[in-house]
Design brief:
Layout: H1 2-15, H2 20-33, H3 36-44, H4 46-58, H5 64-75, H6 88-104, H7 108-123, H8 132-147, H9 151-166, H10 171-179, H11 182-188, H12 195-208, H13 212-216, H14 219-237, H15 240-243
Helix pairs in contact: 2-5, 3-4, 4-6, 5-7, 6-7, 6-8, 7-9, 8-10, 9-12, 11-14
Length: 249
């Protein structure tokens, strides 16, 4: 019955693009029940995924609730049991969709889901590795999230950047990030009393500090004031001893 549903929708989608949000919402619900439904989608209707992502990037009137469903559905593609079945050209389109989504998202829910998709992609080693234009778009999109000063977004951005800094396959992307002013905005994220945010940002900065490029751009000098402010905050919270362990500096 599921395959029949996909067959019927594939025909309708070519003629009635307004049915796309409904279909994606159904896929999100199915994915929540079990990722196996997304695996069936990949195996039986591979061209349909490409069509979904392509149409989503070219049609501007879908609301962010529908985009949340689309983003969650795409996140399922990067589950370990599904990813090997996903063609590389599909991953290419998903990356393009993600960069567009991160740049334009307005609601907190969509921003969180887009960052969750980015984190999943990076963890699977499928993130931007060589395209300088993608590096630039990603840096700008992540900077936008940090500028919102929302703790949830700052934590997610720091976690994503930490993955980039820790994985050798993203060396070129890391080099671009460290050449930009993104680390400086990350230092600004230390001005918080949220322990989870402090932990995520400090961990990311530690990973950055393993690269000579981090110091060649004087990021450490710029961030010294923020680090001192963080120490003052930790002292007030009476947890300074956790952060002065050798593993944290």
């Amino acid at each position: 019955m599921y395959v029949y549903f996909l067959d019927k929708f594939a025909c309708q989608l070519l003629e009635q693009e307004e049915s796309l949000p409904f279909f994606v919402t159904v896929l999100e619900k199915l994915a929540f029940i079990s990722p196996i439904y997304i695996l069936i989608l990949v195996q039986v209707h591979e061209p349909l995924i490409k069509m979904l992502v392509e149409k989503w990037m070219t049609v501007s009137h879908f609301d962010e609730a529908a985009q949340c469903s689309m983003t969650l559905m795409l996140t399922q593609l990067f589950e370990h049991e599904i990813l090997p079945a996903v063609p590389s050209y599909i991953l290419f389109f998903v990356n393009k969709y993600l960069l567009n989504c991160l740049s334009s998202a307005q609601s907190l829910e969509l921003q969180v889901r887009a960052l969750a998709l980015l984190k999943k992609i990076l963890q699977c080693g499928s993130g931007p590795a060589e395209d300088s234009e993608e590096f630039e778009l990603l840096s700008l999109a992540l900077k936008k999230q940090l500028l919102s000063r929302r703790e949830t977004l700052s934590i997610a951005v720091a976690q994503c950047l930490n993955i980039i800094a820790s994985n050798p396959c993203y060396a070129a992307c890391l080099h671009h990030v460290l050449k930009s002013d993104l680390p400086e905005f990350l230092f600004e994220s230390l001005h918080t009393m949220n322990i989870a945010q402090l932990d995520a940002v400090v961990s990311c900065l530690q990973s950055f500090a393993q690269s000579d490029a981090f110091f060649s751009r004087c990021h450490a000098v710029y961030g010294m004031e923020s680090l001192l402010q963080m120490v003052s905050t930790l002292w007030k919270l009476r947890i300074i001893t956790y952060y002065i362990k050798p593993s944290h500096f």
